[in-house]
Design brief:
- It is a single chain.
- By secondary structure, this protein is mainly α.
- The chain is built from eight helices and two strands.
- The chain has helices at residues 16-43, 48-51, 61-74, 85-100, 102-153, 161-170, 183-264, 292-304, and strands at residues 272-274, 277-279.
- It has a two-stranded antiparallel ribbon with strand order 1-2.
- Helix 3 (61-74) packs antiparallel against helix 4 (85-100) and helix 5 (102-153) packs across helix 7.
- The longest helix is centred in the C-terminal third of the chain and has 82 residues, at 183-264.
- 15% of the residues are buried.
- Mean pLDDT is 74; it is low at 168-176 and 280-289.
Length: 305
């Protein structure tokens, strides 16, 4: 009978220094993972499904809460040393709130569906191109072999029509658009969907930012126009008030000159220039109807001039 194999020797216990090094290494690895998680969340902040690493078809309430607890704990500012850990944590909270809102969740589901369709189109296009290139290389090799045979054997027997059709059907690209994808294709589709959703949401965010900027500029421009109109009205009212006051003062001055100027040595009042015009006694501009006394005074003034 064969002897039983000797038991494997028990591993030697690690020394205290080695245990400290192992603990430090695991801690650094965990910190690195937390930092990578924070960077991923910040990059895909516009897509709550990607932030919480959920698929739209599997985002039930239980899975949503479980994913939030897992992801948010990994980037909590008390545990994650990333300088933007607090920002990543707030993004997780926002992602949870958006997916708990039925209307917003439906919007992101539609975005993910559009991204998946775009990714599938790109994958089929790439696979079709690869098959065409492969068929072209195969055709070139076949032609080279036929030429070699023709040179060595002195000619080839022509292919039958049926055989040529069968070969043509074999080399067709009908299978390039199959709905079934391999495991490698699914991995490529997952990555393609993530990037397509990122592009779609980034474009929508840029449009939203532009619209908001235009709205703010229009609102600011409207306030400026209102302020300018208000200041213009205030200025016109002030000019009108000054003109009316000056008109009365000039009438009184001319009346004093007419009655007492020659005997008391009062000088004849001079025309006064204002923004509204030249005030000559008595001023009758600005749509103000002159009285009979004013007309007589004005006639006397023009005679003296």
């Amino acid at each position: 009978a064969k002897a039983a194999p000797a038991p494997a020797p028990a591993p030697e216990p690690m020394e205290e220094g080695d245990l400290e090094l192992l603990s430090e290494f695991l801690s650094e690895a965990t910190d690195m993972e937390r930092k990578q998680q924070a960077e991923r969340i910040i990059k895909y902040r516009l897509n709550p499904f990607e932030v919480l690493q959920l698929k739209p078809e599997a985002a039930t309430a239980e899975e949503l809460n479980a994913a939030y607890r897992k992801i948010s704990l990994s980037v909590h500012p008390d545990k994650c040393k990333h300088p933007r850990a607090e920002e990543a944590f707030e993004i997780c909270k926002k992602a949870l709130a958006e997916l708990q809102d039925a209307d917003k969740a439906l919007f992101y589901v539609e975005v993910m569906r559009a991204a998946r369709e775009e990714s599938e189109r790109e994958l089929r296009k790439r696979k079709r191109k690869e098959k065409e290139e492969l068929a072209a290389r195969k055709k070139i090799r076949t032609q080279d072999v036929d030429k070699l045979r023709n040179a060595m054997l002195g000619g080839l027997k022509p292919k039958s029509r049926q055989k040529a059709e069968e070969e043509g059907a074999t080399s067709s690209f009908a299978n390039a658009d199959d709905d079934e994808f391999s495991h490698e294709d699914e991995l490529a589709l997952t990555e393609g969907t993530r990037e397509a959703a990122f592009r779609i949401l980034t474009q929508l965010e840029k449009r939203r930012a532009r619209s908001e900027k235009v709205f703010i500029e229009n609102e600011k421009r409207g306030k400026m126009h209102i302020q300018e109109a208000k200041e213009k009205n205030q200025h016109e009212e002030k000019v009108e008030a000054d003109w009316s006051k000056d008109r009365l003062d000039r009438i009184d001055s001319w009346r004093d000159f007419t009655k007492h100027g020659k005997t008391m040595g009062i000088k004849k009042p001079k025309p006064h220039i204002t923004e509204k015009g030249v005030s000559v006694l008595p001023p009758t501009m600005g749509g103000i109807k002159s009285s009979k006394e004013e007309e007589d005074l004005l006639s006397g003034f023009m005679d003296d001039v």
